[in-house]
Amino acid sequence: MIIIAITGASGVSYGVRLLEVLKEMNIKTGLLISKSAEIIIKYELDRELEDIKELSDRYYESDDLTSSINSGSFKFNSLIIAPCSMKTLSAIAKGYGNNAITRAADVTLKEKRTLIVVPRETPLRTIHIQNMLKISEEGGIILPAMPGFYNNPKDIEDIINFIVGKILNILKIENNLLKTWDREK
């Protein structure tokens, strides 16, 4: 199972698109949505929260610290936080498991599972970069929402697919969302 967490940063479309693609591939997913992300989903996507929850196989309340995903004994393969707010990034870097998202990230790192964090903030302060470094030093993967343009994106969906394709590549999931660089073409 792959757990997707959507936090309160702009760019909730990355997490939602990842859920859509994994559902199309019949890959089991769990979902966490922070309270701030619920507001941003309505603002950026104009979609109902229930429609997004239905994209996952299992939904976890972000404030439920008794959730199974908060235990190392619960088996899941990876956690992707897309987008990841700087607040969530900071909590993870400091080991502050104050909600189900940051506790699940803590479990992911301590159990040596795959953690992919998709920060969506610009510009970055020094502390943001230091927090990313801390997570990276513990084995987390920092995948900033910085799309490439060698694939000649035609619309925003192409840009979103670029980042989602990068996430899937790290998870070693074959996909055709991301046109690979081929200088010889």
Describe the structure.
With 185 residues, the chain is α/β, with parallel strands linked by helices. The chain contains 7 helices and 6 strands. It has helices at 12-24, 35-45, 49-53, 86-94, 100-110, 126-137, 156-170; strands at residues 2-6, 29-33, 58-61, 78-84, 114-119, 141-142. Strand 5, helix 6 and strand 6 form a beta-alpha-beta unit. The chain starts with a strand and ends in a 15-residue tail after the last helix.
Topology:
Elements: E1 2-6, H1 12-24, E2 29-33, H2 35-45, H3 49-53, E3 58-61, E4 78-84, H4 86-94, H5 100-110, E5 114-119, H6 126-137, E6 141-142, H7 156-170
Parallel strand pairs: 1-2, 1-4, 2-3, 4-5, 5-6
Helix pairs in contact: 1-7, 4-5, 4-6
Q: Runs with pLDDT <50, length 5+?
A: none
Got a strand count?
Answer: 6
State the shape: globular
N-C termini distance: 37 Å
Rg result: 16 Å
Task: Kindly state the percentage of residues in helix.
Answer: 40-55%
Please give the count of helices: 7
In brief, what are we looking at here?
With 185 residues, this protein is an alpha/beta fold. It is built from seven helices and six strands.
